[in-house]
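Re: weekly structure request thread

Next one in the queue (247 aa):
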Amino acid sequence: MICNLSPDTRSSLERGKTKIKIETCWRDGPRGGDWEEAFFGNLMSSQTYRSGTDLVTTIFAIPGLDGLSRANKNKMYKSISVKDVVNELAQEVASKSNGSVTCDQKNCQGIEGKIGEEGWGATGECKNSLNRLSYQYGFSWSITDKQFRATGDKTKGNKVTTIQDPELIDINPRFSGNLQWVTGISWTCQYNAALLPHDGIRFKSSIPENNQRYGDTYKIIEVTHDIDSHSSQSFITSGSAYAIPMG
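Done, posted below.
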């Protein structure tokens, strides 16, 4: 939700698949004055309503929507690495994205496996073919920061970010299943646009017990930015991650 957009901006949101870029800036603190891109994608819908003296606009947008909705591939692959198939499907998405998505092989990491002579067929929308491949061969993919990114389940992305006090607000174990096994962590910290899915994250706390308990390197699964220019208490990043076997 964004408050009090200009009439011209609200009018532009009425056009379908409009490109949306949201930038944020810390007024105070270590990154004060530096504008950071919080989101870039294509508009799906918007709605504006009045709340007191404010005009509040709700925006629903998806990164790379142009490419994801238009890219199709019908092809049988044989005797080829899974990584090469992923890259070809990703290139197709990028080619249909009107410049809103780029694809570079360096952003496809840790994808293992090879398609043999029995073959594997891509049919219809590339995003559905990528989903089928990811389930079968153990990797995840997304479009973040205008880039197609894919990493194997046991591989971090291009960078590891360390979050420490006072930036770190809260950290807790993440449980799953009937037996409530610890499968990862969830955290909250001060807003940090550099945290992206697939990348690595580490934590350093002033509490020794937390360093012992959460001393691993984790792979980010999901990130949520809560940005409210009307309240310093709602300028945070939260997310979840799981431990990966690396040094």
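The radius of gyration is 20 Å. The chain is about 20% helix and 45% strand.
Next request, please.
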